[in-house]
Amino acid sequence: MNARTKPLATVSADRASRIRLVWSVVVIGVLLAAVVVATIGFLLGPPTSDSAPEPTSGPSTSAPETDAPAGQAELPKIAKTGDPARFAESVALALFAWDTVGGFQPRDYTEAILTAADPANEETNGLATDVMGVLPTRAAWVELQKYETAQRLEIDRLYVPDAWDDVVAQARKGTILPGTIAYTVDGTRHRTGVWDGDNTATTHPVSFTMFIACEPSYEACKLLRLTQFDKPLK
C-alpha cells in the first residue's frame, strides 16, 4: 500500500512546486510590465496630433482650471510683429514651451497661444482645437507632473513650403486673406524631468505647418491654423 502512495505524494509535491513557480513568474512579469509602461509613458509623453482635446466652446468661455501663482513662472509670449518669419518662429517656440510644475495648466498655455489669434476670425475656434491637440490633456498633464516634466523646442528649419504656392493657386477667390502665408517647422522636441530621483532628458523630432496672416490684412501678424504634427506642407 505504501509503495503505491509514495509516487502520488511525489507527483502532488512536484505539481505544487510548479504552480508556485508559475505564479512567481506571473507576478514578476506584471511588476516588470508596470515599470516598462511607466517609463515609456514618461519618455513618449501624451500623444499630440492623435490625442482628443478637452471639450471647450472657445478660449474664454470658462475660467482656467487653477489660478497661476504669481512669480512662479511665466507663460510663453508671442512676438507682436509684422515680420512673418519672426512671428512664425515665436509661435513655434511658444507652442512647445511648458512646465508641469510652473503653476499653470494646459488651458492657460492654450489661452496664451490664442492671444496671437484674431477673435473675429472664423478660424479661431478651429485654432483653439489645433492648439489643444498639441498640448497634453489634463489627465496626461497630471501624470507628467509626477516626473516634473518640462518641454521646449529647438528649431532646425523654418521655411515657406513649396506646396504653399499650389494651395494659393488652387484656392477660390476670396477664401485666403491677403498677406496669408504658411511656414513649416522642422525641429526637435526636448523634454526634461526626474525619474527615480535622477534627472532625465529625451528628444523627439517634430514637423508641422502653421498658417499666419500679416499685412495688409493685419498690421501685426495673426495665427490662423496649425496642421497635424508630422503632416506638414513640404
What is shown here, in short?
With about 230 residues, the protein is an alpha+beta fold.
3D architecture notes:
- The protein is of the alpha+beta class and 234 residues long.
- It has one domain.
- It has 6 helices and 5 strands; from the N terminus they run ααβαααβαβββ.
- The protein has helices at 2-44, 84-95, 106-114, 124-134, 138-145, 163-170, and strands spanning 98-99, 150-159, 180-195, 198-213, 222-226.
- A 5-stranded antiparallel β-sheet has the order 1-2-3-4-5, with helices on both faces.
- Strand 3 and strand 4 form a beta hairpin.
- Helix 3 crosses helix 4.
- It is elongated.
- 25% of the residues are buried.
- Residues 1-13 and 22-68 have low confidence and may be disordered.
For the record, the count of structural domains works out to 1
How many DSSP E strands? 5
Q: Look at the helices and sheets and give the structural class.
A: alpha+beta
Strand order in the sheet with the most strands: 1-2-3-4-5
Low-confidence stretches: 1-13, 22-68
Estimate what percentage of residues fall within beta strands: 15-25%
Most strands sheet: 5 strands, antiparallel
Shape: elongated
The number of helical runs is 6
Between the first and last Cα atoms, what is the distance in angstroms? 85 Å
Radius of gyration: 26 Å
Q: How helix-rich are the residues, as a percent range?
A: 25-40%
Question: Could you tell me the mean pLDDT?
Answer: 79
Secondary-structure element pattern, one letter each = HHEHHHEHEEE
